[in-house]
Amino acid sequence: MNKTKRPAVIAGNWKMNKNRAEAATLITELLPLVKDAGCEVVLCTPYTDLETSLALTEGTGVKIGAENCHWAESGAFTGEISAEMLRELGVQYVIIGHSERRQYFGETDETVAKRLRAALNAGLKGILCVGETLEQREAGITEEVIAIQVKKALAGVTAEELRRVILAYEPVWAIGTGRTATEEQAGEVNGFIRGLLARLYGEAVAERTTIQYGGSMNAKNAAGLLAQPDIDGGLIGGASLKAPDFAAIVAAAGR
Ligand code: PEP
Predict the structure, then answer these.
(1) Which residues does residue 70 pair with via DSSP β-bridges, in sequence order?
(2) How close is the Cα of 82 to the center of ligand 1, in Å?
(3) Which one of 98, 100, 107, 132 is the catalytic residue?
(4) Does residue 215 have its Cβ closer than 6 Å to ligand 1?
């Protein structure tokens, strides 16, 4: 496996944290710490922080993402935001299918696929989250679960469009729990995902696709996880809310 064929991407997922003033403080503290980043840096923020984040990161290498988007272009979907609305703001990335959305907001493999389709149609880059629950891991069906999630989300996504998709393996039991997958567990599932992509799209496409790990990645465990041959970056929740911690993860991903 040749890691240089694909970009390393460290993305923060702020979840429902930081008002505008707090967002500005965090970004202002972070920017000097990541100015020489050897990887792509993305901050996925609440909708209400997007404009502030875009303004503060303009002209820097840091990219801004949203945490979700709706599948319709417009219409009677109270409380939702379309992919096109995000693109028009200047947002480049969007997280799709995060486990918290699957768990608390009824997100299914079908709605994940529709949201990813909308993101790609709008010209955005999607960070597609997949991952098994603890119950599924203990039942020995991790690979089956991941395969179904990946195949359903990517049904109809062309090899060309896959250039704008990052996959994020996020075991549900490791998100926000402080319980990280071991380097071997994470590396193994990321390798499985790459093998699946090779079967779906061919070796060359699989090799050029960025596959992140997410789940309690922090300043201490990042280097070990990122050293795994199939882990090309991270989707970072809790640790993305503190500039020095997030910057340390960015530094660990530098190639
Ligand atoms: C996430 O929200 O995608 C995540 C991985 O969270 P945490 O890093 O807090 O586990």
Answers:
(1) 82
(2) 24
(3) 98
(4) yes
**Residue 7 vs residues 40, 104, 193, 212: alpha-carbon distances, Å:** 7, 31, 17, 10
The band of 1, judged by pLDDT with boundaries at 50, 70 and 90, is low
Of the candidates 119, 36, 18, 27, the residue with the CA atom closest to the CA atom of residue 64? 27
Q: For residue 236, how far is its CA from the centre of ligand 1 (angstroms)?
A: 5
Tell me the pLDDT tens digit for each residue of 65-118: 999 999 999 999 999 999 999 999 999 999 999 999 999 999 999 999 999 999
Ligand 1 contacts CB of residue 214 (under 6 A): yes
Q: Is residue 70 annotated as part of the catalytic site, yes or no?
A: no
Q: How far is CA 254 from CA 7, 62, 200, 247, in A?
A: 10, 14, 29, 11
| Nearest residue by C-alpha to atom 2 in ligand 1 | 237
Q: Would you list the DSSP string of 9-51?
A: EEEEE--S---HHHHHHHHHHHHHHTTT-SSEEEEE--GGGHH
First to last CA, the chain: 15
